[in-house]
Amino acid sequence: MYLGLDLGTSGVKAMLIDGDQKIVGAGHGSLDVSRPHSGWSEQAPADWIGATEDAIAELKASHPKELAAVKGIGLSGQMHGATLLDASDNVLRPCMLWNDTRSFKEAAALDADPRFRALTGNIVFPGFTAPKVVWVKNNEPETFAKVRKVLLPKDYLRLWLSGEHISEMSDSAGTSWLDTGKRAWSSELLSATGLDESQMPSLVEGTDSAGTLRSELASKWGMGAGVVIAGGAGDNAASACGMGTVSEGHAFVSLGTSGVLFAANASYLPKPESAVHAFCHALPNTWHQMGVILSATDALNWYSGIAGKSAAELTGELGDDLKAPGTVTFLPYLSGERTPHNDAQIRGVFTGLGHESSRVVLTQAVLEGVTFAIRDNLEALKSAGTSIARVTAIGGGSRSKYWLKSIATSLGVAVDIPQDGDFGAAFGAARLGLIAATGADPVKVCTAPKTEETIEPARELTSAYEEAYGRYRKTYPAVSALN
């Protein structure tokens, strides 16, 4: 058996698969996000451990024999979080998460140094790790002085699981400290933020062995000795491993808390000015590009709280047949935006509201706003040299056929829905655990699931969608000027 652990923003998922990659069982532990000030987003690393224990306890209760047979563990996690540790590995402050934008001034200052884009292949976004650590240096100097290690969220779990300070390429590419082409820490960039390589974890590939499970935990969970822990991956690269998006020409769209348009690449193709992320993949000698929007299902969930209806009820009211966009436009920038704007201070807006703007109309506008944000990502990926002919849909939002029809029509590409099953980050992490434990060929393990259904663009609505997208594009600069 092989165990995948995915540390998400809202919880930890633990998934068991067997040697044939059949899903045996899953457990879950919940997490909350603290937002003490505007633009802040934090979690206590101790809560990650508690949620992981809850998830594994659920698995142990339902599948004790299978859990006992685990030979490899793979890790996936939310990217970019700054987990600061002292010399005794004590946590110095709450972890600033991927959607924490307080360090926008520090990010701009680092991004103005041409070495960062040249070596990392990316804009220094406020959500990335390096500017957040510089924010601590500028605002909490006593804490910064005690920092001996900086770990990403999933790698803090690894420290607890194995006692090792280790990370891997895909997650580390989102720190602004990795030389992405060379797949190595840049001492030059670390020095520019007041750090050195001794404060970083060692680096492995996602398919490599990266520690073994501590005997106390193995005993507690009924496992044997020598359980291998894989390098793992950042959440999107792990999802790509689960979806089989590991070779040139493969792509997926993820409708989770954030939204992602992800394309695998056989070579390193940076174009930072497009705000496209160019990161290492979890597999050796492989890279990927992705556009990221900060609020996808998060935007629908926000509106759900105001409307007093669940997200499923709201999308259900739209019916199955795709409608032409109406007069209401929604910008889903509830916590700023990454691709293509790199704007931490922009905020969301409805425009074109009238007396006739019912709950259903606003729901449709919210879905279309996220759709158009993903279309922005497609245009950015095109400008960075990547063409996409079709995508596979994953994430909670992909349960809405209406939303997928909207995306297919706006992007002008077919959207494949995988056969019923969970092929997300936890499954991808379990695959990496299998590879690290057995030495199996990563490409043969990370295959694509069978397609249940393909949604084609509604060509009769293409012109209406193009007109609405043009209106959407004009709204951002107008709202930005108000800021």
Summary of the model, kept short:
With 483 residues, this protein is of the alpha/beta class. The chain contains 18 helices and 24 strands.
Description:
With about 475 residues, the protein is α/β, with parallel strands linked by helices. It contains 18 helices and 24 strands. Strands 1, 2, 3, 5, 13, 14 and 15 form a seven-stranded mixed β-sheet that branches. Strands 18-19-17-16-22-23-24 form a seven-stranded mixed β-sheet. The relative contact order is 0.13.
Low-pLDDT residue spans = none
Total strands: the figure is 24
Question: What is the number of helical segments per DSSP (H or I, 4+ residues)?
Answer: 18
Report the mean per-residue pLDDT as an integer: 96
Sheet with the most strands, sense and barrel status:
7 strands, mixed
**Share of helical residues:** 25-40%
**Beta-strand level of the residues, as a percent range?**
15-25%
What is the C-alpha radius of gyration, as a whole number of Å? 21 Å
User: Structural class, from helix and strand content?
Assistant: alpha/beta
Distance between the termini: 53 Å
